[in-house]
Amino acid sequence: MNFSGYFFEEISDKEVFQAITDELHRQQNQIELIASENFVSKEVLSALGCVMTNKYAEGYSGRRYYGGCKYVDVAENIAIERLCKLFNCKFANVQPHSGAQANLSAFYALAKPGDRVLGMELAMGGHLTHGASPTISGKWFESIGYGVDKNGFIDYDQVKSLALKFGPKIIVAGASSYSRRIDFQKFRKIADLVGAYLVADIAHYAGLIVTGLYPSPMDCAHIVTSTTHKTLRGPRGGVIMTNDESIAKKVNSAVFPGVQGGPQMHSIAAKAVAFGEALRPDFKMYAQHVLNNSIAMSNHLKKLGLNIVSGGTDSHLFVVDLTPLSITGKIAETELEEAGITCNKNAIPFDTLPPSKTSGIRIGSAAMTTRGLKEKEFLRIADLIFKVLSNYAKSGYDAIKAEVREESLNLCKKFPIYG
Ligand code: DSN
Predict the structure, then answer these.
(1) Which H, E and C letters describe 325-342, residue by residue?
(2) Which of 85, 228, 377, 412 has the most beta carbons within 10 angstroms of its beta carbon?
(3) How would you class 285 by CB atoms within 10 Å of its CB: exposed for 0-12, middle for 13-18, buried for 19 or more?
């Protein structure tokens, strides 16, 4: 994969050009630890900026509502074929503009407004679109939330008892900040007990799943949804997969015309390129490093005295509980950003602080692993994080933060991206 030599063409709109240039420099010069982000290859970027953005192609390959779709059909067919190969599935829809659209389409395909949906609570590590009250998933469906036990692991007994009590139409297995393996087979058994559909949202884990480093739900979920831009390292977007032909038909109708209009063909072309990259042997090595780096870093932060939710990680991400340092997630996010390290504040299970503050931060290894960092560097980043957070508001703090900022910048320069 080629992550160097990215030169975007200067555009005459100076204000926008400046914003793009500044964002490029920010990405080059910050240590990126946001668990849902990654750096795409130069080829994926080129495909994203291609002329397919000009094309309307409502419908599906071979049965569009516009003429002139011959070549976008080729791109979409390649994307579908590669995605099915990656996940070993029979049917795929590559049109969702995002993970949220993919999840909404899955709900639309399988349930009606007023039906019950059982998903992981947002505050416990779930995702907004799995039934959180401000979203369509929480407003149009009767949503019930499950959580984790006192050790931070999914409470399958609770999932089962809630399923038996409420008889949901859909059970969602998937998360935004759950670091451990999800037992999809256990979820399917519970779904079967109550006649529910199982929807697995693997947005975070997709790149680890296709490389065999995280369990795949493909043989047990009725529908699998994902984003394409996290560990899978593709362009921003969503996908839906299934092995059931009648569900596949419902999914296609749900995506278009149910939830979306014209697909973004430039984005689908870029998805096809990224799926091609994920099929290559070096992607497996990349994913293995992502996992090794995350485990090494979380263990090191633990040694330094911080709590890790659930005690560690089986994936690219983990959540640090900051309560031993008496510092909020919001403060940590701001201070670390000023020290050259980007991450996001995140609730910890049973958090007593509101989502605008939180008691934790979420950390992910996918993006910096793309830049070539290995365990040694991730351990050093853990040291830098600890240095900032443990000295916060103490005397000499500003000088310490400046030191860390300089070291972060040097590390970024050693592992350039798009340079
Ligand atoms: N917002 C994404 C995340 O950060 O996990 C999920 O869609």
Answers:
(1) HCCCHHHHHHHHHHCCEE
(2) 228
(3) exposed
Q: What is the DSSP string of 344-360?
A: EEEPPTT--S-TTT-SE
Residues in Cβ contact with 15 at an 8 Å cutoff, skipping those fewer than 6 apart: none
Whole-angstrom Cα distance, residue 210 to residue 196? Answer: 26
CB distance 370 to 41 below 8 Å: no
Q: Can you tell me the distance from the alpha carbon of 204 to that of 219, in angstroms, rounded to the nearest whole number?
A: 18
How far away, in angstroms, is 36 Cα from ligand 1 center? Answer: 6
CB 94 within 8 A of CB 268: yes
Mean pLDDT lowest among 11-15, 59-63, 234-238: 11-15
Judge if pTM exceeds 0.85.
Answer: yes
Residue 175 has pLDDT above 70, yes or no: yes
Tokens of 156: 């399958």
By annotation, the residues acting in catalysis are 56, 58, 201, 227, 230, 236
Beta strand 360-364 with 317-321: parallel, antiparallel or unpaired?
Answer: antiparallel
- Contacts of residue 314, defined as CB under 8 A and 6 or more positions apart, other chains included, come to 179, 180, 181, 214, 291
